[in-house]
Amino acid sequence: MERWPAHYGTAQNETRRVMPANGAFIFPDALGAFLHKKVVVVARGENGLVAVNKPVGVISHPNTGVASRSALLLAPYNLRRRAYAVIGGEVFLLNRLDEPTEGLVLLAQSERVAKSVRESFRKHAVQKTYYAFVKAGPVPAKSWHDFAVERNDGKSVRLSPGKEMEMRTNVKVVEKIQFGDLSCFLLELHPLTGRTHQLRFQCAKHGVPIAGDRIYGDFKYNKAFHGATGSHRLQLLAAEIEFDYTLAGKVFHFFARSPSTDAFLSPSGREKRADNLT
């Protein structure tokens, strides 16, 4: 057996399994054993529901199903079940973020919880808050309703205008900011649907591309933003998530906030915009 990487938390043989009263298996040490070294546990809810903060450069899951050292967990991934296979069971991935996006990802340590939370997502009953620094342009409308088509060649995904997928997002301009001569908006975004690249595509479509976006962005603006701030990264943060879910007839509430939010939004954070993954 391959020696377990020291930077992936506790050793394999420290993983324990506990049966709570509701009959769902919980693996309290599994995440510590398998999580990528730069991924931080933010909140632990009841029934084995966990929120972690994914940094830029870490992928939500391997596309091949084979374990990857760049993934959220160092474990094989089942694409059909949307779950990582860990010692003693599975860890279910409930939402995904693009590799260049930082922020909250939800994990469930039982299939029952995963099904319930996924149903909340399906009913658009999950409140998600993102923040983005975008190129200043026309003041955005308070809500966006767009359609797109997804092109996936197996290696990369790209959206273009079309009628295949509906996307809805509520938008708020928090403030206009100057980095020297460079102007940008700080947007608060509340996606009502959860499409791949949704916010990146919609921001670009509505004339306010996200700074640092290498697919949908304004490349001249990205260069200027890097010169003014020192950062190459995509300026998008999945900051908060809140929802209710039902399990065995009981309603549970869950809320999590990314520990990066205050730094992302603060003036001092903007001055230190240079990221550690440049």
Describe this structure in words.
This protein is α+β, with helices and mostly antiparallel strands and about 280 residues long. The protein has two domains: about 10-125 and about 240-255, no CATH class; about 130-235, Pseudouridine synthase (2-Layer Sandwich). Helices cover about 15% and strands about 35% of the residues. It is built from six helices and 13 strands. Strands 1, 2, 3, 4, 5, 6, 7, 8, 9, 10, 11, 12 and 13 form a 13-stranded mixed beta sheet that branches. A hairpin with an 8-residue loop joins β5 and β6 (about 100-110). The longest helix is centred in the middle third of the chain and has 12 residues, at about 110-120. It is globular and about 55 Å long. The relative contact order is 0.15.
Total count of domains:
2
**Could you give the order of the helices and strands?**
HEEEEEEHEEEEEHHEEHH
Low-confidence stretches: 1-28, 272-278
Number of continuous helical runs: 6
SSE order and pairing:
Elements (H helix, E strand, L loop, with lengths): L29 H5 L5 E5 L4 E6 L22 E2 L4 E4 L2 E5 L8 E7 L2 H12 L4 E9 L7 E10 L4 E5 L3 E15 L2 E10 L6 H8 L13 H11 L6 E12 L2 E8 L3 H5 L1 H5 L7
How would you briefly describe this protein structure?
By secondary structure, this protein is an alpha+beta fold.
Keywords:
Pseudouridine synthase; 278 residues; disordered N terminus; globular; 13-stranded mixed sheet; 13 strands
